[in-house]
Amino acid sequence: MIYIDANVFIYAIENHPEYGEACKRILLDIEKGRLKACASILVLVEIINVLTKINKMIEERGKRPLDVRKNVDAILSLPIVWFDLNFLIIKRASEYTYPVTGVDYVHAATMETNIVWEVISADKELDKIKFTRRIDPREYK
């Protein structure tokens, strides 16, 4: 099982010029059952937060915003194992000293607690967490 970071979903939704196609391929593999995926519900929080920010920029340009609910519903329809946050994960996250953000601590603690060692992410910061192996979306096969 591989942990999926929020940026994979975001880049697929916004059709990112560098990562969009690779991220769409990853989500298609999840949908078709070729990739066993998991994530924290924190990923969903991050997705809603980013889509809301993107919509603010889109609306300022006078364009039609993204449908946040439709995108979240599409994500939730995928066969992904969603890990809840709990006190054990938060406690473990508070013990890390890696040079990354607190949000990444929570992702790492979720992975460690659930014995998941690989993450698909464009975020190179995750390379600083020594017990994980980050797979760049463009390198996913």
Oligomer, anyone? single chain
| Helix coverage percent | 40-55%
Task: Tally the structural domains.
Answer: 1
Q: Return the CATH topology.
A: Rossmann fold
> How are strands sequenced across the largest beta sheet?
3-2-1-4-5
N/C terminus separation: 14 Å
Rg of Cα set: 15 Å
Q: Tell me the CATH superfamily.
A: 5'-nuclease
Structural class: alpha/beta
CATH class: Alpha Beta
Q: What is the CATH-assigned architecture? A: 3-Layer(aba) Sandwich
How many helices does DSSP assign? Answer: 6
Biggest β-sheet strands, sense, barrel: 5 strands, parallel
Low-confidence spans: none
Q: Sum up the overall morphology in one term.
A: globular
**Beta fraction:** 5-15%
Description:
This protein has 141 residues and is α/β, with parallel strands linked by helices. It has a single domain (2-139), classed as 3-Layer(aba) Sandwich (Rossmann fold), CATH 3.40.50.1010. It is 49% helix and 12% strand. It has six helices and five strands, in the order βααβααβααββ. It has helices at 6-13, 20-31, 41-60, 68-76, 87-94, 102-113, and strands at residues 2-4, 37-40, 80-83, 118-120, 133-135. A five-stranded parallel β-sheet has the order 3-2-1-4-5. Helix 1 (6-13) crosses helix 2 (20-31) and helix 5 crosses helix 6 (102-113). It is globular and about 45 Å long. The protein starts with a strand and ends in a 6-residue tail after the last strand. The mean pLDDT is 97.
At a glance:
The chain has a single domain (2-139), classed as 5'-nuclease (Rossmann fold). Helices cover 49% and strands 12% of the residues.
